[in-house]
Specification:
2 domains; Ubiquitinyl_hydrolase_UCH37; 7 strands; thiol protease; Ubiquitin C-terminal Hydrolase UCH-l3; 12 helices; protease; hydrolase
Length: 318
């Protein structure tokens, strides 16, 4: 699955990739984080959470792939939903199926508003009334979305034909689906399904229903399996934490706690920017070309000979 004739490359399941991908597509006010637990305390720290993206492994049989709920017509239910029509796009598609259904939010505080941006707003308006299958083709035909998606492709100096390997040695197949509330109902948005899946009415906190639904799905895996990952699409943390810390009425105890949170978020964001820059500027081909050129000119051989002579000289002195 490393490369596909459609021109869409395989990307990494990394929250910083998703965060930067959404940002480069024009989405404002959202970030994506790993979610290591579904307990109430963990969820509370990350709130407000607007969607969950669930990554699971296809392992054959029914494990992890059976889901409860009722399939519904997206046009009748008011859910924006696109099918996956090409390989390697499921992560980006799950993120877009999620954010297209997250309501825009105005805020008087800078950086805390939530908005799709012109690129995705135009796509949403253009696709109004289309079927999920047609929307999938609209997304896959977007040069901008494909370019941003491919800019986070895995770096590899080798190009290998997957058909040359035995089935057991081929890369495992993983898939992304999104869970979020739309119009007071919890939905599962899986691009490989014909329609959205309606799970339950949201009573107070939609994450309660989402936790029960996802835990039931995880329970279909063999005990002790580590074949899934969970991401939270949440409001951007740094603008809110910065505003709260600038409040002169903030108690000293809370100030220390929020300062620690802000430092953590800044460090995480800086690390993510560095990693994404390396992903988007793949230096491996240049490095291998340089090594090849040095080998052809004998530079590497000469350097290796000199180093070998130095090592022998040091050993003789010992």
């Amino acid at each position: 699955m490393a490369e596909d004739p459609s021109g869409w490359s395989l990307t990494e399941s990394d929250p910083q990739v998703f965060t930067q991908l959404l940002r480069e597509l024009g989405v404002k006010g959202l970030q994506v984080d790993d979610l290591y637990s579904l307990d109430a305390a963990t969820l509370e720290v990350l709130k407000p959470i607007h969607a969950l993206i669930f990554l699971f492994k296809y392992i054959g049989g029914d494990e992890g792939q059976e889901t409860s709920g009722i399939e519904v017509d997206p046009l009748e239910s008011g859910v924006w939903f696109a099918n996956q029509v090409i390989n390697n796009s499921c992560g980006t598609l799950a993120a877009l199926n999620a954010v297209m259904n997250i309501p825009s939010q105005w805020s008087e505080h800078s950086g805390e508003e939530i908005a799709l941006g012109s690129e995705l707003e135009n796509l949403r308006d253009f696709g109004a009334g289309m079927s999920a299958f047609d929307l999938g083709h609209v997304l896959s035909s977007s040069d901008r979305i494909r370019e941003v998606h491919n800019s986070f492709a895995r770096s590899s100096p080798f190009s290998m034909d997957p058909s040359a390997f035995p089935e057991r040695e081929k890369e495992d197949a993983y898939h992304f689906v999104a869970y979020l509330p739309v119009n007071g109902v919890l939905y599962e948005l899986d691009g490989l399904r014909r329609t959205p899946v309606m799970h339950a009415a949201v009573e107070h906190d939609w994450l309660v229903q989402a936790r029960e639904t996802i835990e039931a799905r995880i329970a279909t895996y063999p005990p002790g399996s580590v074949m899934f990952n969970l991401l939270a699409v949440r409001s951007a943390a740094i603008p809110r934490l910065t505003r709260l810390l600038n409040d002169p009425t903030l108690p000293a105890e809370s100030h220390m706690q929020l300062s620690d949170q802000l430092e953590y978020e800044n460090n995480k964001a800086n690390k993510g920017r560095t990693e994404n820059t390396l992903r988007q500027h793949n230096l491996l081909p240049a490095v291998f070309a340089m090594l090849k050129a040095m080998g052809e000119t004998g530079t590497l051989v000469d350097e290796a000979r000199v180093k070998g002579q130095d090592r022998r000289a040091r050993k003789e002195k010992e």
